[in-house]
What does this fold into?
Amino acid sequence: MGYSYHIPTRRNPFNEDVLEWRESEVEDLIENRSNMKILIATQKPFAAKAVEGMKNILTEAGYEVAMLERYEEPEELVAAVADVDGLIVRSDKVTAEVIEAAPNLKIVVRAGAGYDNVDLAAATAHDVVVMNTPGQNSNAVAELAIAMMIYMSRNRFTPGTGFELQGKTVGIHAYGNVGRLVGRKAKALGMNVIAYDPFVTDKALFENDGVKQVDSVEELYKSADYLSLHIPATPETKASINYALVGKMPKGGLLVNTARKEVIDEEGLIMLMQERNDLKYMTDVMPAADTKFRTLFEGRYFATPKKMGAQTAEANINAGIAAAKQIVDFIQNGNTRFQVNK
Ligand code: 3PG
It folds into this structure.
């Protein structure tokens, strides 16, 4: 029909056939597009400046903005989406129940990188576009990964002799937006940087950063004094960081996880750390077995109480503003560049 913004697919409820929109109905849709309601739902709120910027962008586009911050129960999100057209979240769980409770929903933007918190199949089944904002909060996560390496190397800032990062080898598991930034910062600290990422085919990416690309994940762990994890949580990566793999790390190795808790085989790691009292684990994604780790490995284990990699004003502003702009660009121009459920 030549309209450049998103027209949802409409189906016959009895036989699922796609129904064409009439010209007059499309005109109504265009007319109504400025009556949209966008909900910003964040259990872990954005910085105030980010919220202010997001509200400005969305209200200037003519949309109503609703806020649901620091909510505790999933049911609160289910109730809040009843009349919304667009949804912006962080790690908030956008389940099939949430999507089914939002008959007007057209778009969900996860203001961040990982979208394992959104039920993509349910979204696709309801013709809801899902996007992320890749790269926008990466620097904050990369800085935290380096900070964790320093913190543990300096005995968690307690008295005693520690170690320097300079001259040590850091292995970067997955060379995406965050992995690359960790690599560059580690180089600046005088570390040897090696990386493994079977999905990055452009060798120049590693070469330009002065990073050595290794051919296997085993080689990465075998050579890394510090191992920084940046893989997403997928069915393939679930529990893939296990006893055998981490066990390849050299004496005194530190595993740093600012990715997802699900990628760790927790029982395997516990068994390994019991056998090897030289190994250490730091994370900002608290393990399910946090109490066990804390009790067994005092001084060798540290987890932040809340996921905090992307918890900076800058990251909130970058990711939040990008999310708001993507919503407007999608509704007004049909731009689906960052769609993850194509
Ligand atoms: C991400 O995937 O972008 C990071 O894990 C940050 O998540 P957060 O928005 O919940 O802090």
Notes: Residues 44, 90-91, 112-114, 137, 307, 309-311 surround 3-phosphoglyceric acid (CB under 6 Å). The chain has two domains: 10-136+313-333, 138-303. The domain at 10-136+313-333 is CATH 3.40.50.720 (Rossmann fold). The radius of gyration is 22 Å.
